[in-house]
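pasting for the record
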Amino acid sequence: MPILKWIRYGAWTGVALMALAGAAIVMGWWQVDGPGRPDAVRTAQQTMLPIGGAFTLVDHSGKTVTDADYRGKPMAVFFGFTHCPEVCPTTLTQMASLTRQIGAEADRLQILLITVDPERDTPEQLALYLQSFDPKVVGLTGSQEQVETALKAYKAYAKKIPTDDGYTMDHSASVYLMKADGSFRTMIDYHEDDKSALAKIRMVLD
């Protein structure tokens, strides 16, 4: 396997493990409910930083939006870029397949692609790219600072990697599933099987 792929998979694994560890505490996947909950768990829940948060970006139609514009609907948030050779098209294709399998109920799920490459991904470029995928997907870009704010809010990773013909982007490959109130629920890992991913989407739609 090429060195770049080893770096990429290692980064994804590290980010996913940190995010899932945080989510397990924030969401209490393994917690004891009620007054019998261990003090250590309560303390960890109180101090762990949440996944997700405020952002101001520009959608692929050129409109300035914030996280508040998507409040009230569950969200599937993915960080990627239009020059991505494998991960991004694979993930967007899988999301389209999953929403088709769920049916009309999936219309309540807002899918957001936040670019990690604002240098090349203008609103126009995002709009052109997204023509090949589910029309419900909204592409978001902005200044480098705005994108970095969104990455930080979601505890996501992105890094520019020089190549012989320019550069590519190494980035987190998981899909963040957010509840309608904007809080984090769970995530779909890259190459996760459809059965598991469907269960997670249905969970956030409930």
